[in-house]
Amino acid sequence: MSATEDSSGNSVRKRRVGSSEPDPQAADSRQEHEGDSSGAAENRKGVQSLRTGTFWLTRVVLLRSVAFIYLVAFTVAYNQNKQLIGENGLMPSKNYLNSVKRYVGGKIGMAAFTYTPSILWLLDWSDMDANLDGIALMGMLLSALVLVMGMANMVIMVMLWLLYHSLVNVGQLWYSFGWESQLLETGFLAIFLCPVWTLSRVPRRCPPSLICIWTFRWLIVRIMLGAGLIKIRGDQCWRDLTCMDYHYETQPVPNPMSYYMHRAPCWFHRFETLSNHFIELVLPFATFLGRRMCMVNGAIQILFQVVLIVSGNLSFLNWLTIVPSLACFDDASLAFLFGSRGGAKKAVLEIQNEEAAGRSPKATKGMFVRRVVNVSLGVLIGFLSVPVVMNLLSSRQVMNTSFDPLRIVNTYGAFGSITKERTEVIFQGTLSQDPKDPEAVWEEYQFLCKPGDVYRRPCLISPYHYRLDWLMWFAAFQTYEQSEWVIHIAGRLLSNDSTVLSLIDSNPFQGRETPRWVRGEHFRYRFSQPGSSSAAQGKWWLRKRIGPYFPPVDLEGLRGYFQSRNWPHPHIPPHRT
To answer: Is there a contact between 181 and 402 (Cβ–Cβ < 8 Å)?
Structure first.
């Protein structure tokens, strides 16, 4: 005889070949001789036959995925916050907090915390750069810990959520993107995946709540429906199936694959648009049609996000959108990720066997309290979803909006309208005394990722994100009066300010005299044609000047402009005095 297991993990016996009766002595002899190796084989078979309907391994995958996104987000914050919202940043967070303080009556109290939830209210503002770095570093450390271990508790996940909340709420324009609220909502739901104190990948007394799993599924449904409906109600090109003719070229930060996908045949772009509508408007309802259809939805949503990741640099948005899709899968469907001898798989099998044998852990007061918390979570999400659902049903739908100050349940959407032409703002500086001199030589600044030099290949940075480059995309189809921070950057460039220059890839005046004038030029960009003479010369882009974006400015001329906006006036370099 040999020992094996049925599909539910229960031990059964096979009869000996050629015999009509079982032979327990032979089985005992085999177990005695084979010892641990027989047990290992049995365990391997058992691990491969996990039952459906449990989510222990799903929790591990979800926690690691959320931790990865947190790690990326806090890394971006650590590298860019000082330049954007630090002491000498373009929009100092200290100034913002002071304005909020004045608005709520001049005191740091509940009104201030409600208006701008942030632990920065509790810290010493004498060195805001250190505060911002400390928050980012703590977030990086905790998220890396969860990512490596695949386990967390509520304390860790609450800390991550509070830390990132504290940055988003003082980030102003630089943190105004939809994925910030999406990460905060996803991070909030992840809190309830975990035990309160215990650090274990499979905490036996804290089974993953089906309510919590469904909150993640509800999130992916809302994300997709919000994105699909805003498209149908927004730009006509989504309805006549032509939006993808423009998207790859005009998206905020194209990557090298965008260059080639833009030149795909028209029929392929029509297919892409139809597929987009199906995935965003129809497929989400499969979530409610049973296990198999839910898994189909999860798999297609993940594949869809992977295609978007490959075709553009959309920050960590698409990576983040994969996270709630993972909740469509249970332990049986995710077991392949954990290897044949994975400790987590073995622990889950043991739990399933104990439940099948009626030996579940005895209910405790703590387990009862946890059930109450899980039900309360479901009620809270349901209540906060009412205005979100009403927004989805409204003909005046808005996207990327929060209806509560903690951003627990939000509305989402992307690319409700598509720009048909790509324009760019190019900063140029000159050493000439007279900016009107026709012989003045204007030299260009190059940003880290956004298009500039036509010979430079589009960058590949996702899931990382350059916040200034992204905002420059918005500035290009606005005026400098609508994006005054553009003039702030020009003033910093005139003074060779190292803070802003650290956000720039190439300074043409590096190691030379600083420019006397800086101007903004407006250009129309389009991809070169693969195989054309321009492409053969190494040009990724072709561009044509539209006209000036803002006129030439110098430091003295900007003095009044800076003072009227309470911006610190850049120092005039010594050679100017």
So the answer is: yes
The token pair that represents 381 in the structure block: 């999400």
Contact in structure between 80 and 503 (CB atoms under 8 Å): yes
Distance in angstroms (rounded) separating the CA atoms of residues 367 and 313: 44
Strands 410-411 and 401-402: antiparallel
Under 8 Å between Cβ of 269 and 261: no
Helix axes 467-476, 56-85, angle to 10 degrees: 70
Closest to 203 in 3D by CA, of 87, 79, 56? 56
Average pLDDT over residues 379-398: 94
What does DSSP say about strands 11-13 and 422-430: parallel, antiparallel, or unpaired? unpaired
Q: Are 348 and 331 in contact (CB under 8 A)?
A: yes
Over residues 305-317, the mean pLDDT reads 96
Report residue 241 as tokens: 């199936």
> Count of residues for the chain?
577
Cβ neighbours around 330 below 10 Å, total? 22
Which pLDDT score, from 0 to 100, does residue 35 have? 40
Q: pLDDT tens across 159-196, in order?
A: 999 999 999 999 999 999 999 999 999 999 999 999 99
From the list 466, 475, 456, the residue with the least C-alpha distance to 520 is: 475
- Select, from the ranges 29-33, 267-271, 358-362, 368-372, the one with the highest average predicted confidence (pLDDT): 267-271
332: which 2 tokens?
């049986």
Q: pLDDT tier at 24 (50, 70, 90 boundaries)?
A: very low
pTM value?
0.89
Distances (CA, A) of 558 to 84, 485, 518, 574: 20, 13, 11, 18
For 518-529, the pLDDT digits (tens) are: 999 999 999 999
Q: Do the beta carbons of residue 537 and residue 481 sit within 8 Å?
A: no
**450: phi > 0 → left, psi -120 to 50 → alpha, else beta; which?**
beta
Residue 356: is its pLDDT beyond 90? no
Helix, coil or strand: residue 407? coil
Q: How confident is the model at residue 20 (pLDDT cuts 50, 70, 90)?
A: very low
The pLDDT value given to residue 341 = 67
Convert 361-370 to b/e letters by CB count within 10 Å (16 or more is b).
eeeeeeeeeb
Q: Cβ(570)–Cβ(490) under 8 Å?
A: no
Q: So what's the pLDDT on residue 360?
A: 76
- Which residues is 11 bridged to in the sheet? 5
| Whether residue 24 has a cis bond before it, omega within 30° of 0 | no
**3-state secondary structure string, 248-268?**
HHHCCCCCHHHHHHCCCCHHH
Number of neighbours of residue 29 by Cβ within 10 angstroms: 12
Q: How many Å apart are CA 151 and CA 157, to the nearest integer?
A: 10
Query: What is the C-alpha separation between 311 and 171, in angstroms, rounded?
Result: 28
Answer yes or no: is pLDDT of 392 > 60.
Answer: yes
Q: Within 13 Å and on the Cβ side, how many CA atoms surround 312? A: 19
Hey, what are 426's tokens? 């190019």
Q: In this structure, are residues 387 and 204 in contact, taking their beta carbons and an 8 Å threshold?
A: no
Q: Is the pLDDT of residue 285 over 80?
A: yes
In angstroms, the CA 167 to CA 77 distance is 8
Separation between Cα atoms, residue 55 and residue 66, nearest integer Å? 16
